[in-house]
TrEMBL record:
Pfam families attached to this UniProt entry: ArfGap, PH
CDD domains named among the record's database cross-references: PH1_ADAP
Keywords for the protein's UniProt record, in alphabetical order: Metal-binding, Zinc, Zinc-finger
Superkingdom, taxonomy of origin: Eukaryota
Keyword hit for Coiled coil: no
UniProt name for this protein: Arf-GAP with dual PH domain-containing protein 1-like
PANTHER family found in the cross-reference section: ARF-GAP WITH DUAL PH DOMAIN-CONTAINING PROTEIN 1, ARF-GAP WITH DUAL PH DOMAIN-CONTAINING PROTEIN 1-LIKE PROTEIN
An example molecular function term from Gene Ontology annotations: phosphatidylinositol bisphosphate binding
Entry GO terms, CC: cytoplasm; plasma membrane
Keyword Metal-binding: yes
Organism, scientific name: Hirondellea gigas
Domain called Arf-GAP: residue spans: 1-100
Domain PH, chain residue ranges per copy: 102-203, 225-315
């Protein structure tokens, strides 16, 4: 159960949310431990008359459908900005359009260079009317470096991998290959606005394409966090091939592998099909292959991939 409460807002809080509330400052939220705090009668009365359900009727009255409400374990920036949106900016108390529901967003983001681990400011433009996200070397540049269709783009918060609290990963298909773009902004508010703006534009697109579907039915398709990411070793098709360490990303039915975890392009992509179509995954290596560590074989109609994980659990 909750261990904390905000005694001016009248809500009970878990440890994560209590930290977020403390970061708002005591002029917005006054946080106290339920067990260790000393409670005065008027403070208890605020909690009794408030309570989370009652308070959220006001603070979460107009949350746009595209907005991703955080769950425990979600990236820190998502939780922090949700709390700030509710209690500091009071974003959801009126029906007025939000910065991220206007179908248009422009501004500089720090973008990782394709072939080096350095970030440079680039000018990004989201346009719902053109149904794309573009970026330019400079605000004044005429020609976009990339024109990413909204139909193709996936947006994912990637703080751990990027070692960047406000890190965002955009992935899309270009010329038959997946391309990853890594960006961040020093402001968590700005990065969450971009995240929600792309989700909002995608939702509006889907609502036009599937007029009979409800918003709630379409929301799960706005963005995906990758199902699994991590290092595996992969060996080539011939017996002499050595195992090489690769960064793998599992995205629904597609397994991508990269030389490094922040690479712009995967070295290869494996579509994962159904058992009935000759796809299978078994522990161990085929007879003509070295077994290294926790090996497993992924069989597709075209090729058998022999992979090995650093531990039994990860296999
Ligand atoms: Zn919480």
């Amino acid at each position: 159960g909750p261990e904390w409460a905000s005694y001016n807002l009248g809500v009970f809080l878990c440890t994560t949310c209590a930290t977020g509330h403390r970061n708002l400052g005591s002029h917005i939220s006054k946080v106290k431990s339920l067990k260790l705090g000393k409670w005065e009668d008027p403070e208890v009365e605020v909690l009794e008359s408030g309570g989370n359900v009652h308070v959220s009727e006001k603070t979460e009255r107009f949350v746009p459908a595209c907005y991703r409400r955080p769950k425990p374990g979600d990236p820190h920036v998502l939780i922090e900005q949700w709390i700030r949106a509710k209690y500091e900016r009071k974003e959801f108390e009126s029906e007025s359009a939000k910065d991220y529901t206007r179908g248009e967003m422009k501004g500089h983001l720090m973008k990782k260079a394709r072939d080096e681990n350095k970030y440079y400011p680039r000018y990004f433009v989201l346009s719902e009317t053109e149904s794309c996200v573009k970026y330019f070397p400079k605000e004044s540049s005429k020609e976009a470096k990339a024109n990413i269709p909204l139909s193709d783009v996936n947006v994912c918060l990637a703080p751990a991998k990027m070692h960047q609290d406000n890190g965002l990963q955009l992935s899309y298909i270009t010329e038959g290959s997946t391309r990853h773009i890594y960006v961040y902004h020093e402001s968590g508010h700005v990065i969450i606005n971009w995240y929600m703006a792309i989700r909002s534009a995608k939702l509006n697109r889907l609502m036009v394409a599937y007029p009979s579907a409800s918003e709630a039915e379409l929301v799960p398709y706005l963005s995906t966090d990758f199902a699994l990411e991590g290092y595996l070793s992969k060996t080539g098709p011939s017996e002499q091939d050595a195992y090489r360490k690769r960064w793998f990303i599992l995205d629904h039915r597609k397994l991508m592998y990269h030389s490094g975890q922040m690479d712009a392009y995967p070295r290869g992509e494996i579509f994962l099909g159904h058992r009935d179509d000759n796809y299978s995954c078994t522990a161990g290596a085929p007879r003509n292959c070295k077994d290294q560590g926790y090996t497993f074989s992924l069989k597709t109609p075209e090729r058998t991939y022999v992979l090995s994980a650093p531990s039994s659990e990860e296999r």
